[in-house]
Write a structure and sequence with these properties.
This protein has two domains: 256 residues, Aldehyde Dehydrogenase, Chain A, domain 1; 183 residues, 3-Layer(aba) Sandwich (Aldehyde Dehydrogenase, Chain A, domain 2), CATH 3.40.309.10. The strands form six sheets. A seven-stranded mixed β-sheet has the order 14-15-16-13-12-17-18, sandwiched between helices. The protein contains 15 helices and 22 strands. With 455 residues, the protein is an alpha/beta fold. The structure holds nicotinamide-adenine-dinucleotide. Nicotinamide-adenine-dinucleotide (NAD) binds next to α7 and α8.
């Protein structure tokens, strides 16, 4: 029996003079061997038939009751989130609380979206289950990201196999085992393992892949799903730009970019990754960014004053360091912090003078770094903001004219004087940041097959 061990990210340390590291184990789970996948899929297929035959209202009752069971384990879930991926406990409780409190509303919204629509006296649209949906989720919001895909997939009458991130198996284990106290057997199953299991699952006899994760993995999944024309919904990485115009409320822009660059230690898909500020206000903007950024406290999740946790693992830590070192070598100016931090933390870092050839400009960083460039003409800022394969979120701070700038940005979600994305709107990545989307009626319907019935 193979096991997957979960480590405390705050405990990673180097041993000896080489690249070897060690960390404290939090716990472990049994992994699913790839050879066992056909058995899991056969049981998911059998369970799906009965599940799909239930009226929507009954599926909704099951799902709502299943999510109510999470109340009893909410503290344990929040602690596991903090322990496994390092975010501070307060934020972990928001993630759990949000998932539980929204569950009944989320289920009823999905139920309504998937109810038969009458187009006229002769035509109806039916939303039919697809079969088996593989949900593959990341570690940065280990509960919320799995939940966003899993709930509509289940409610649509599919059976679901969740392959959670190998960084956060314990959160997934508690989440799924708790839901399964109520759900019919095998409607929702867990496949614990690393990306090789994810790859095998995508290639297996399933009908849809609902994925949240990196752009690289998304491309691989799309290629692997192609021969079976499997349905795909993919929410991928981002490299979100923020443009700060001369007419902006500088304090509001500063508060936004610092909070958004450091949220979840920068490990958020819609983190602010690069900032283009009008050179006429750049000195004041940078000064204020440094002042605010230097107040952030880095440390372990259980210390109340901490708001930036560790990088999730040494690979992510190294990736951020490499981007900082690259910026330094190419002339970036460090206004706060440096390009050299020991495991496992990255201190709040502010770098200005970012140029298009730097990794900080064109790669997703996923660390607590504020990366600033100055612009003379707004067209230059727009062109650099759009010069990316990514297109998840984008933000403009400014007075009159900000909306016109925002309309030129190539992103799925654009915010004017506020963050990108809205609670009552779909979650959308443009360009290589996504394929399809979830949330709202249009998003929920992507987990179903439309059938046009004409009488
Ligand atoms: P990742 O792509 O490395 O892994 C995500 C999941 O996919 C894991 O469960 C992993 O085991 C699995 N996986 C990896 N390669 C696979 C493959 N080829 N086939 C099948 N499964 C595979 O991503 P991560 O490091 O866990 O998460 C961080 C990334 O997720 C960032 O790029 C971030 O921007 C993105 N993200 C996007 C959103 C969004 O809504 N757009 C939300 C959260 C995170």
């Amino acid at each position: 029996m193979a096991v997957l061990t979960s480590y405390d990210p705050a405990s990673y340390r180097k041993i000896g003079n080489g690249d070897d590291v060690e960390a404290t184990a939090i716990g472990s789970v049994e992994t699913l061997a790839i050879e066992q996948l056909p058995t899991v899929i056969a049981s998911a297929k059998a369970a799906q038939k009965d599940w799909a035959s239930l009226p929507m209202a009954e599926r909704e009752q099951y799902v709502v009751k299943a999510y109510q069971q999470l109340v009893a384990v909410q503290d344990e879930l929040a602690t596991l989130i903090s322990q496994e991926m390092g975010k501070d406990y307060r934020r972990a409780t928001y993630e759990v609380g949000g998932t539980i409190q929204n569950a009944a509303y989320f289920a009823s919204e999905i139920s309504e979206a998937l109810t038969t629509e009458k187009l006229d006296n002769h035509t109806e649209l039916h939303y039919r289950p697809l079969g088996i949906v593989a949900v593959i989720s990341p570690w940065n919001y280990p509960l919320a990201m799995a939940n966003n895909l899993l709930m509509p997939a289940l409610m649509a009458g599919n059976s679901v196999i969740l392959k959670p991130s190998e960084e956060t198996p314990l959160v997934a284990e508690l989440f799924i085992n708790t839901l399964n106290k109520v759900l019919p057997k095998n409607v929702l199953q867990l496949a614990q393992g690393d990306k090789t299991l994810g790859q095998a699952l995508v290639a297996a006899d399933i009908n849809m892949v609902a994925f949240t994760g990196s752009m690289a993995a998304g491309k691989h999944i799309m290629a692997s799903a192609a021969p079976g024309l499997k349905r795909l919904v993919m929410e991928l990485g981002g490299n979100d730009p923020v443009i700060v115009m001369a007419s902006a409320n500088i304090d509001a822009a500063v508060r936004f970019v610092v909070a958004s660059s450091f949220e979840n230690a920068g490990q958020m898909c819609t983190s602010t990754e690069r900032i283009y500020v009008d050179e006429r206000i750049a000195d004041e903007f940078e000064q204020k960014v440094v002042m605010l950024a230097s107040r952030y406290q880095v440390g372990k999740w259980d210390q109340p004053q901490v708001n930036i946790g560790p990088m999730v693992n040494p690979t992510q830590h190294l990736k951020v360091l490499q981007q900082l070192q690259d910026a330094k070598a190419k002339g970036g100016v460090f206004l706060l912090g440096s390009d050299d931090y020991p495991l496992p933390f990255i201190q709040p870092t502010v770098v200005s003078g970012i140029t298009p050839d730097m990794l900080l400009e064109h790669e997703e960083t996923f660390g607590p770094v504020v990366a600033i460039s100055r612009f003379k003409q707004i067209d230059e800022a727009i062109s650099r903001a759009n010069d990316s394969h990514y297109g998840l979120g984008a933000v403009v701070f400014g007075g009159q004219g900000a909306k016109a700038v925002a309309e030129q940005l190539e992103a799925g979600m654009v915010g004017v004087n506020q963050g990108a994305g809205a609670g009552n709107a779909p979650w959308v990545g443009a360009k290589h940041s996504g394929l399809g989307f979830h949330g709202t009626a249009a998003g929920h319907r992507q987990f179903a097959q439309v059938r046009v019935m004409s009488y």
